[in-house]
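Q&A log
Question type: sequence-to-structure
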Amino acid sequence: MMKEDISLGALVAIYGDKPVELIHLISNCQSYISNMIGTAFHPYDMQQVHATITGIGQVKPSALFNVGFYEQYGKQVEMDFDGLINYLHKSGILPFQVQIGGFQNREYPFISRGMQPYERSFSFGGGIAFIVGWPIRGTPNTNKNLSLIDLLHESRIYPTKLDEIRQAAKGFGFLHRYYQHINDFDNDFYFRIGLFDSMSLSNEEQEAVENGIRQFLSDTLPIIIEINPSNLYFAFSDKETLPRDSTKTFSISDPNVFASVMSQMQIETKPKTHRQ
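Response status: OK
Response body:
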């Protein structure tokens, strides 16, 4: 499929304004990387940093066919924005909290991409520098001397909220990029903090930066942020990186969000309102 045949978009969190403690953490990571690899790193603008929940790209010139389903399966699956918006407001899935940082170098009751949270919390991949957090319910355990009972109890506090939203979104016609098989699972709160020139760095240099950022994140007190309708947006741009000056966003908390999105996608429909 040619680039001009698709319209880019995503359901995103924490786009634009962010909690102060998260701004400091991202800024510190960006500065560390810049100090280590110089101009090979291109940090994102802070307002541009976002976590993608699922893709909402549109196959053009169709009405509402989802790019993910078309690229993955060759299927024309229509996106049900009204259904997804109602689900986010009425299912009870929101609000939930996410932990960023504070993951110790030990086993946790979950893994991501075959890695423990400490290792997965920061990586370079495909020219992208990204941080990962995970949904949490309650207070993370920061004690370094955990008993077996502590470890068993820990499984209760890391729910699968993000995967639940992505699986529900799939049922409404929105295929998450990392769902390539029917039983795929993705509970990552993944956000890019910049791009880097992988050709200018050796594997050893990349690993040195990754190890340094992972340790920094581990030593940081856990940052807990709430995900709710006020910081969830439908975002549309001609660039996947969603630069602030060329991205249009529509808040899930706006009662007229459905009509706004349909207008953005040039779909004629009767206006609907959505309230919690």
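Response note: The mean pLDDT is 91.
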